[in-house]
Amino acid sequence: MAVTDEAIEKIKGMIVSGALRPGDRLPKESELAADLGLSRNSLREAVRALSLIRILDVRQGDGTYVTSLDPQLLLEALSFVVDFHRDDTVLEFLAVRRILEPAATAMAAVRISEQQLDALTAQLDKLGDNPSVEDLVACDLEFHRGIVHSSGNSVLCSLLDGLSGPTTRARIWRGLTQEDAVARTLREHRAILAALRDRDAEAARSWATVHIASVEQWLRSTL
Question: Which SUPFAM superfamilies does the entry link to (predicted)?
Fold first, then answer.
């Protein structure tokens, strides 16, 4: 394992230094192994490991390439790991969301376009006043994804997208068991949207915090 770790570090060093750039094809296995002072087996294991976390792209019959290194691509590994969360860590995921999402919503207040605001309004109008819990949660995910995307920060967008999964079940559970959850969620969505239309970053931040904290508070009271 230590030999594989060394091989990973050497390939990483080539990418960080700029010797290998996004989209570049790696030299032939025999050449690269000789250049880096590695065995072909350890190099092969390192390439396999780096392809799993989307650093490298192994194309059968074509060669191995450095990926785009786009944050959304790299953070796919986070989504995979997050899927293994335990139910008792959902509150921790919500706490992280409560830190990051209001900041992204505040950023969106000064960047979001009128067309994007109209699309969010149409999304809420289409949902209506008495949606099913499943439709509400699906809309909730898309509503917040659209806002975070408008923040203009691709890393923040990818992080929050990866963190949304563990809280989905909690949101459905809340919608099924808390009497006013659906109406309350709709009111909070409208308040967030109004703040975004007013270009009021602090109001948008505050309403996003209230929105996430209400789920967190309910879940804490039921555990």
Answer: GntR ligand-binding domain-like, Winged helix' DNA-binding domain
Cβ atoms of residues 192 and 207 within 8 Å? yes
The residue type of 166 is: P
**pLDDT tens digit sequence for 118-137:** 999 999 999 988 888 888 88
Give just the sign of the alpha carbon dihedral 40, 42, 43, 49: positive
**Are 32 and 26 a contacting pair, CB within 8 Å?**
yes
* AA identity, residue 32: L
Alpha-helical (H) ranges within the chain are 2-17, 29-36, 40-52, 71-74, 76-82, 90-109, 114-127, 133-149, 154-177, 181-197, 201-222
* Beta bridge pairs of residue 58: 64
Query: In order of start, what are the domains of the chain with their CATH numbers?
Result: 3-66 (1.10.10.10), 72-222 (1.20.120.530)
- d(C-alpha 105, C-alpha 210), whole Å: 12
pTM of the model: 0.70
